[in-house]
Each structure stands twice: as C-alpha cells, then as structure tokens.
Amino acid sequence: MAIRTDRSAVALAWLPLGGLCLTLVGCGRAEPARTAEAESWSVTAWGERYEVFPEVDPLIAGEAAVAHTHVTVLDGFAPLAMGTVEIVLRGAGGEESFAASTATRPGIFTVEVAPRAPGEYELLFRIRSAAGDEEIAGGAVRVGDRQTPGGPLRAPAPRGPTAGGESVSFLKEQQWQTAFSTAWVRRGVMAQAVRGLARVRPPAGGEVTLTAAVDGVVQPSPWPYPGQEVKRGDVLFEVLPRVASDRSLPEIGAEVAGLDAEAATARARLARLEELLALEAVSRREVEEARLRVTSVEARLDALRRDLEGARAAREGRGGATHALRAPWNGKVAAVVASPGAAVAPGDALGRLVRGGPVWVEVDLAPDGARRVATEGIGGLVIHLSEGEPLRLSTDQVRLVSLAPAVDPAKGTVATIFEVTAPGLILGTTVDAQVLLRSDLEGIVVPITAVIDDGGVAVAYLQLSGERFARQPIEVVSRQGELALVEGLVAGQRLVIRGGDAIRRASLLASGAAEGHVH
Q: Is this prediction's pTM over 0.85?
C-alpha cells in the first residue's frame, strides 16, 4: 500500500545523548558536556522521499556542533549511501548552511553545524541524491552560548496524537537491516463484505468424463497427461475392441467361412429371383425377402471379419481397427484414470477433460450474507489463498451466476455461485472468500502487514521519533486482501507498516541497559 504525505512533518524528542556517549566505546565524542543543561538532542523529520534523524550536540555560537545525521530513503526504507546532506539555519540575517557529501557509514552523514551568532532559527534539511532532491522542515532551534547552550525550540504542529504506552527503542541500524517501513495513518474507504468457505469448480457443462464405448483394450498411443491442452476433435484415447477369450482364432475363422458361403448362396438366389421377377414368374415379396436375407448375412459377416482381425491383432500385439475417443471442445486434461494396455468395458472411465476459460467459485454464505448479496449487489471478490497475497477480483472479473433458493440443512448456508475470470485458480481448491458489497465502510485503513499478533492481541507500532516506538492495541474491524480497517489509530500518526514484529521481538529481548550508536 503506497502512502504519500502531502507535507513534511517533524517529531521532536529530547534525548540525553551527550552523557551517554561517555560510556560507549567508539562513539567518537568523549568531551564532557559544557554545562549541566548542555544535552545533545535529536529531531525526526519526514518528507516525501526521506526521513531525517540527526543527533546533535548543543548549539553554541562560534563553535562546531557535531550532528550525526541518519538519512533513510523512504522508497524501500534503505540507508542513503551516496548524496549530499545539508543542515540549514534560516534566521533574520539569512541562511547558514552546513553540509556533508560523504557518508560516515551508509545512512549516517556527519555534519558540523557552526552557527555564527546566537538567536532563533528555522531548521531545514536539504537532501540531494539519486532518489531526488528535497527540502524538509525541521521546526525551530535556538543557538546559545557556553552559559546557555541552545537546542530545539519548537516543532511544527504534530500530524496526530502519539500513543500513550511506554516507548520502545529500535535503532536505525536495526531498521535498515530488516524489512521495515513506515507511513502516515490515513482515513480511507473499504467495501463491506460477507465471508464464506468456497470451492473452485468448472462451470456447468465445462467438464466431461471420457468413457470406453466398447469392450476392449486401451492402446498406449496416443496417451494424454494432466494439464495437456487439447483442441476439439483431438484423439485422446484409442480402444481396440476385443473378442471373448473363450473363442479361438480357428473357431472365428470357421464362422467367417460358413457365413461367407451362406452369403454367396443368398446373393445367387437373389439374382435368380430378380430374373424370374422380370418374367413375372415370382412375386415381388419373394424378391424383397431374399434381398433382406442378403443384407443380414453380409452384416453378420462383416462384423465377424472385424472380430477376427481384432482377435489376430490382440494376440499378435499389433494395432487394428480401434475406437477413438475425441475431445468434444477446447480444454485441458484434468485427470487420466486408465492405464495403457488395460482391459475396459463399456462405460469405464478413462480420463476427465475440463473446458478452458472462466471457472465457478461456489461460496457458502450465511443466510443474512446471501440476502445482502441479493439486495445490495456485488463489488468484487477477494479470494484468500493458502499462500501468497490474496487474489482481489474486480466487478469486470466476477459475475453472480445464482443464489440457491434454500438453505442447505447440513451446512446451514446458502450456495452462491460466481463466474470468475482468474487463470491462476486451480479447480477443486477450497478457499476462504469474501464477497465485496456495493456499500462502504469508512475509517482508518492500513496495510495488513501493520497488524501484529501480540499473544492473541492485535497491536500496531507507532513511530514517536527516529528510533522510539510505542505499542498500540487496535481492533481489526474488517480485512480485505492486503488491507485492514482498524480502530485504535488516529489519522496523522506515523505507523510502522512493515517490521512491527521485529520491534516486538526487540522489546521482548530488551534488558533495560542503555542503548546508543557506534558512529
């Protein structure tokens, strides 16, 4: 969920960093604080492209204050490795700019701020890099002297209230090394929905079982396979008709010879009767009976000859006259249940074919949900797959086919069928589905990745400053695909939309010891 802010904002925090650095190896700032009130301070500012989090020494006119400036590229939430970072003090006499063009480490630029005169100044940050140029307001600061060192004076009006819970530390170095990002909390609109268990199946008439038409043996070629795309008329199976095993080839051959002689006699008699009919020596009825006799004997002879050829082919292991099973339409082979060389009887299933194109999703809805679908109309469908992102389908991809007129007594639900155009759906899959309605819910909409399960309680983490966060219990009102509508947040707060689980783990592992940076 891409969330952009329409103006820069800042969060201000007093942090007693000066004294802390004396206890850390490698901090690089070992001089003591100038006075009891001379404490380092930090400020957090967000722009369109960057988050800026400097940790700054007290501001004293004529002296250099070191600002360890952490700069994060919001697109990907990565540390800025190359670019120029400027800290600008804008006062009544103009601007003073202090810059660093080389990162001490990726994401950290050490800027020395040496204001010339005491007074009040607007604080600005100017970032130039491949990610784009941006100027971000950082509130106001006061530059003092050795007796009264300066620091932050005021911040712009906050975007939203902060959480009331205890803050948790999660350093920039930790944020940059994990999947992490933040965004402003915003109000949004989410369609109302009804939910149910669903099954993906072929549409009516979109599935056929191919069965043997004769008693025979399934030939090894051609041989289909599941997932094979076929066109109408393609031969999928061939069955070689077989003769009963209790009849030998000589027996069948003798029957053929006997019927052949009988057919020859019948044809000769028919020819003689036709000659006599021309002389009006016999009746027409006798001729028709003789012709029918010839037709019957020749049909029996033809069938017996095919039986003989099939029996010879089967016993010699070669092909013969076969019955072909063809695809009735374009589609895919869903299953093959026969085996090459298997003996089959008429009606035995050989395979199953499904038609290509849209599929049906049959959703079991509660009666009230089915009523709302019927009265309010549908605005789409969200299918929650077992893995990966949910599949969200718009109205041009979904069509309501039917609502069952009665409740299934075994399930207590109403079968609702949708025709869906979604090539990735696998037939036979059972999924969780949400039918989106045309009515809307309004409230705080966040990415589902912002919702963290904390021991069975839904929580989110709010960013108070660059490295301070607060746990905020929330309630998920509705979830649709990658989005959730929640209660417990206020528009304008800065929300961790990815990486909240890492903050939770860090808070559980925290020992309460002082934390800080190694610059």
A: no
